[in-house]
Amino acid sequence: MDDFFKYLTAGEEDQNWGLFLNVAGAYLAKPGQSYPPMKHPSGYYFSWDSGRVLQEYQLNYITRGGGVMETREGKFNIRAGSVLLIRPGVWHRYKPNAKSGWQEHYVGFDGELANRLLSHPLFDQSQPVLHVGVREELIDTYYKVFDLVAEEHPGFQQIASGLVVKMLGYLISFEKQKEFQGKPIAAIIEDARFRIRQNVDQHLDMEHMAREYNIGYSYFRKMFKNYTGMSPHKYHLELKVMRAKELLLVTNKSVKEISYDLGFQTIHYFSRLFKQKVGKSPTEFRA
């Protein structure tokens, strides 16, 4: 796309939303061209000799070319598909290779929600460059942000902030997928999830299930949790609670009947688990 950048103001309502944008843009640094371009304001412009410290987060996605980034943590190679995660208050500098140049897409943002999301273990300050590959869905999300900030219709900050959250979600998802790419365990977990869903009302022996897949339970449990975010047993319980909520709302079955239908040993255990997960007892939820 053509070079584009826009600096934004965030009102009190935008800041109270929890995540707000300060800047968004795209830039093609051609081979041999000086970098960064001189047209940026003093708060963003930097030289290689001095580097800079920003007062915001930035996600800078490189989709062509390559280069290098340096922080106090070390020196990091950048290639097509790299995302530079820049944090407020952290000295850094980066530049494209003179022979290749690069295409960059960036957003700058801040806020309390941003602080919380960027505390995720994946976003380790010692590793400010993530190699996720050139992903069409990530590029498309940047373009949607650019369209919003170009027009600045009322409420654009709230929509754009949601797209930044989406970007961060993609980064986590891409990193998690790396662990399973090309490995048979991914197909095993998908099959196990299907079996658990199909038998939500049954008692399932997860250790026996692992043996059916010819793998040890500890490995099965670990990889299932890495894949889904929860253990097989917890996954099964969450599905039971979801099904219980549906039955409470759309049927006239008693709490005792629903408890029995979903394979709970006692109504007391079912009621206690339901309240723990939902915050209300089954009777209160139905009312």
TrEMBL record:
Name of this protein: AraC family transcriptional regulator
Gene3D superfamilies the record matches: Homeodomain-like (1.10.10.60), Regulatory protein AraC (2.60.120.280)
Alphabetized PANTHER family for the sequence: ARAC-FAMILY TRANSCRIPTIONAL REGULATOR, MMSAB OPERON REGULATORY PROTEIN
Residues in HTH araC/xylS-type domain copies: 190-287
Gene Ontology MF terms: DNA-binding transcription factor activity; sequence-specific DNA binding
Alphabetical list of InterPro entries matching this protein: AraC-bd, Homeodomain-like_sf, HTH-like, HTH_AraC, HTH_AraC-typ_CS, Tscrpt_reg_AraC-type_HTH
Record's keyword terms, sorted: DNA-binding, Transcription, Transcription regulation
Keyword 4Fe-4S part of the UniProt annotation: no
One Pfam family it belongs to: HTH_18
Domain of life: Bacteria
